[in-house]
Amino acid sequence: MNKLESIIKTKEDWKDLVIFGGQSNFTSPLHVGTPNVGDRSRLFERFNDILDRRWFSNNGPYVQEFEAYVRDALGVRHCVATANGTLALEIMMRAAVLQGEVLLPSFTFVATAHAMEWQGFTPVFCDIRKGSHSLDPHRVAEMITPRTTAIVGVHVWGEPCFIDELTQLAENRNIPLLFDASHAFGCSYKGKMVGNFGRAEVFSFHATKFINTFEGGAITCNDDELAERMRLMRNFGFAGYDNVVSLGINGKMNEISAAMGLTMLESKDEIIVINKNNYQQYKANLKGIVGINLLEINDKELRNYQYVVLEVDERLARIQRDTIMLILHAEGVLARRYFYPGCHRMAPYHSKKPLHSLSLPNTENLCDRVLLLPSGQRVTLEDIDEICALIRLIVQNADVINDKLNG
Ligand code: T4K
C-alpha cells in the first residue's frame, strides 16, 4: 500500500494540497507505467537456464518459445520477436513498403512517426475522428495522393482503430495497410485478436506495457513471404552462415527478454484482473465529477485495461488539465498527458514544410484534454480512492485554486 496507513485521512480541504503547503498522502510516487512483474521464481529458473545453456541471443530457445506462445495466443501464423517496438516498426515498414509517403495519426507515441522518418519514409499526419482517439478513415481517404505508399493505423490504449473502414479503403486504393498495435496485446476486434489485421502489426513489450520483456517488440502477420523477409532483416540479412541475402539490422530479441516475456505471459490473466479492477475503481470513484470523463473500455471485446485515460473538459471542470496534472504531481501522482502536443507539433516534424502550418483540430483538442492515471500491480484500490478524492477536491475547489495559483 502506497498511501500512509496511519493517521493521514483523505484530504478534505484545498489548503491540505501539497501545492499549498500540505503533506502528500503517498509514501512514494505513483507512476503511469510502473512495470508489472510475473512469478519471480519461474523467472529466475529461466535466467539460470540461460546462463547454464550459454545461449544468450540470436533466435535462442526462449525467443522461439516466446514467438510460439504469441502465435498461439493470437491465432496468427507468424511472430517475429524484436529488440523493441520501434525496431519492429522499422523492420515492418522496410519489409512491407520500401519507400514513399505514409499516412498515420499524429495522436500516437512519437516512435510511430520516428520509425517512419528514420527509415526514410515521409510521415504524413492525419487527424483522428472526433469523439474517438483513432485515425479518421475519411480524413485518410481525402489525404491519399499518388505518392502515398502505406497507411499505418494505431490501436491507441488497446482500443482497435477503425479497422474495417481502413481495410476497405486500403483495398479499394490498393495501398498496404499496417498497424502499430503497441498497446493492444491481448485485445480483440470483432472477436478476432489484434495481430491478424492489415499486412502486419507491431507490438511493444517495453517495460511500461501490459506484457513486458524489459525492452522488446514483435511483428505478427499471416504472410509467409513477408515474415521471412522480416526475419532476415532482423538478423543483418543472414540466411545462414556467411550468407547475407538482404539488407538488415540487428533487431533481435535476447533470451533474458524472452524469458521475462514468457513469465509475464503466464501471469497475463491475473494482470488483466488487476487492471480491470483498478479501472472499475476509478470509474466508480470518478463518477459525477463535473468535466472529468473516464474513457470507456469496451468490455464486449477482449481488452488488457492497461491504460486509465481521462478527458478533462476544462470548460465544465473550470480548471485546466495542466493545473490538475501539476497538483497531482505535487502529491506524488505522476499523471501523464500522452501524446501531448501531438507528433505534428514536435521536432522534427513541426518545422517541416508544409507541416509547420498543418492543423489537426481533433488531435490538438484531444492533446489538451487527455490525462493518464497510474494503474497496474503497484497501485492499490486505496491509492485509487485517494487519487480520485484528490481530483474531486481539485474540481470542487477549482475557482479558489485558480485564484490562488494565478492571483
Ligand atoms: N508505438 C506506440 C503507440 C507506443 O506507445 C510506443 C511506446 C512505441 C510505438 C514504441 O515502442 P518501444 O520502442 O518503446 O518498445 C513510455 C514508453 O517508454 C514507451 O515504450 C511507450 N510507447 C510510451 C507510451 O510510454 P515515456 O517517454 O513516457 O517513458 P518514461 O521513461 O517516462 O516511462 C514512463 C513511466 O514509467 C515513468 O514515469 C516511470 C515508469 N517506469 C518506466 C520504466 C522504463 C518505471 O517505473 N520503470 C521502468 O523501468 O514513454
Index terms:
407 residues, alpha/beta, Aspartate Aminotransferase, domain 1, Aspartate Aminotransferase, domain 2, 2 domains, 7-stranded mixed beta sheet, 3-stranded antiparallel beta sheet, 16 strands, 15% strand, globular, binds ligand T4K
Chart the SSEs and their pairings.
Layout: E1 30-31, H1 40-53, H2 61-74, E2 78-82, H3 85-96, E3 101-105, H4 110-118, E4 122-126, H5 137-143, E5 148-154, H6 163-173, E6 177-180, E7 188-189, E8 192-193, E9 200-204, E10 217-221, H7 224-234, E11 238-240, E12 243-244, H8 255-266, H9 268-286, E13 292-294, E14 308-312, H10 314-317, H11 321-331, E15 333-334, H12 361-367, E16 370-373, H13 381-396, H14 398-406
Parallel strand pairs: 1-15, 3-4, 3-5, 5-6, 6-9
Antiparallel strand pairs: 2-10, 7-8, 9-10, 11-12, 13-14, 14-16
Helix pairs in contact: 1-8, 2-8, 3-4, 3-7, 9-13
The structure holds ligand T4K.
Ligand T4K binds next to helix 3 and helix 4.
Task: Describe what you observe in this structure.
This protein is of the alpha/beta class. Helices cover 38% and strands 15% of the residues. It contains 14 helices and 16 strands. The strands form five sheets. It has a seven-stranded mixed sheet, sandwiched between helices. It has a three-stranded antiparallel sheet with strand order 13-14-16. A two-stranded parallel sheet has the order 1-15. Helix 3 (85-96) crosses helix 7 and helix 9 runs parallel beside helix 13. It starts with 29 loop residues before the first strand and ends with a helix. Ligand T4K binds at residues 31-35, 84-86, 108-109, 111-112, 154, 180, 182-183, 204, 206-208, 217, 334, 338.
